[in-house]
């Protein structure tokens, strides 16, 4: 994502990348620290995307000082991406290796020299200091401010263990906590890689022709109108329109389509797609920050920052849970020795164990890591989910409504039948095409295409007094004769005795086959019938079948077509319900009605004509998001390719994400409850407490990373 700069009240807004976030608490704390820096008006951290947007004047050094508690590294967005170091070789992990070595050495020394010997104690103390010095600094600072987060609880527990002579246990707690943090860091980096892989899709330079010169130009310096030369085997660096050449492009990175698409002059192409065959010259139509790929990355990052309903619940719960644990631990330390004569040392130990096991880390991280992983995986597969809330809502869908034209069908009508009544077919088709030439109706273009196929010169026919009859058809004078072209209903009004029974039967037969019938005639008779049909997408039937298999209870087709045409198409694709003769406001009302009955309803459309229904639905799904700004902006989910086959995958991913989030929350709370119950008989040791906390965090994260494996 390129650097974003906007002047806000003469102050600069700028985005930086941050390395080292391990938990949402740390991200929140970093945001607060940055807000308190001199010259900063506002700051907003996006934990999922690992970035911070600041308004005001600052330096990278100042930002890093605000993140010193977590040793955060900040870099300018325009800088070359730092090469990723293997997890085992990361600098932060070396203290864990040294501390672990000291712990093991001290354990064997204690066996040889005895428990009270000073050398093992020094070894344990060194292990505690090396493995936990950054934790202590954080914890002590927080303790002074009475900010009881995870670092504070751990610091109190470890220092308490040392104070009552449990040096070995304190060292084990430090090591296990350090390992836990390292694994969290590794897991979150793994989840974020889905975004970073998107950022690396498009090249940073392109071969540009300006005048007679060809030169390599950085994408930030390429202007709209520049001509980009793309050789076979190269990726496109910018969005544009082909002005010379023909080739096949692999668009999988943007649309998720596995089959390469042929592109020729006037076709739109996207940054990040791979030119497989021919040499292309592309006129650049968007600056790098406005490209489809940049918009996808920006929207995905924003989506990952948005809090899902389950995350909001967890945050509210943790707000009261942590103070509750501290009060419980304090009572556990004080009440039994004071009122029951119990041993102080034993109950201080139990209280410390409660503090350790009470850390809400696994619970807090359970939702965001799932959301980040699922949204990143979806983006790589050509599906843009615009927030955790939409991911969760999609997982709970029961009903999906589809617009017919352009969604279940290709949206390009074609003439299938021409029926004439004792007249010349070509002459009547010429008159019909000449009249429809003045119409904006989609069916008119189908008739004109048919006339062109027959080589008819309908453009030369003189048309007089052309007039549109709203919702019914058109009329015009050709060769001093008034002709009407329109729906059968129009001729019921125009003809004195209505449409003849045998012609009605022909119309009915065509409509039963799912075709729309246009009628040409005068005010005395019907001259011909022209049947037009919109072809069904090859994938529609299979998609509907897979959705029913996935547990969608009802699929509904919504269309403005007549009932017979709608039923013919609906039966072919296999939808469970068909609603015909609908105006846009009828679709909107129908979605509202479905919501009142079934609660969670998705509407699938093209993002333009269906905007009201998309907005009213629980989840609005737009087709063909690539290159369509309206679809990207209006829908909750955008299928980047103009293909429905991504819908079952989206439902599957969302349902799995919802299941995993529920599993994570349940498991996090259950492990805490079991560990706390072990306090009663005195079975909860410090090392067991940290092991339970670390194990819960690790399992929650690994469980979430399973979402990366979900494919179509």
TrEMBL record:
Broad class of enzyme this protein falls into: translocase
Catalytic activity: Cd(2+)(in) + ATP + H2O = Cd(2+)(out) + ADP + phosphate + H(+)
Superkingdom assignment: Bacteria
Sequence intervals crossing the membrane: 94-111, 117-136, 320-340, 352-376, 665-684
Gene Ontology MF: a single term: P-type cadmium transporter activity
Subcellular location, principal: membrane
Membrane topology: Multi-pass membrane protein
UniProt-listed Enzyme Commission number(s): 7.2.2.21
InterPro entries: ATPase_P-typ_cyto_dom_N (IPR023299), ATPase_P-typ_P_site (IPR018303), ATPase_P-typ_TM_dom_sf (IPR023298), ATPase_P-typ_transduc_dom_A_sf (IPR008250), ATPase_P-type_domA (IPR059000), Cation_Transport_ATPase_IB (IPR051014), HAD-like_sf (IPR036412), HAD_sf (IPR023214)
Domain HMA: 12-75
Locations listed in the record: Cell membrane
Keywords per UniProt: ATP-binding, Cadmium, Cell membrane, Ion transport, Membrane, Metal-binding, Nucleotide-binding, Phosphoprotein, Translocase, Transmembrane, Transmembrane helix, Transport
One GO cellular component term noted in the UniProt record for this chain: plasma membrane
Family: Belongs to the cation transport ATPase (P-type) (TC 3.A.3) family. Type IB subfamily.
NCBIfam families: ATPase-IB1_Cu, ATPase-IB2_Cd, ATPase-IB_hvy, ATPase_P-type
Protein name per the record: Cd(2+)-exporting ATPase
Organism: Halalkalibacter okhensis
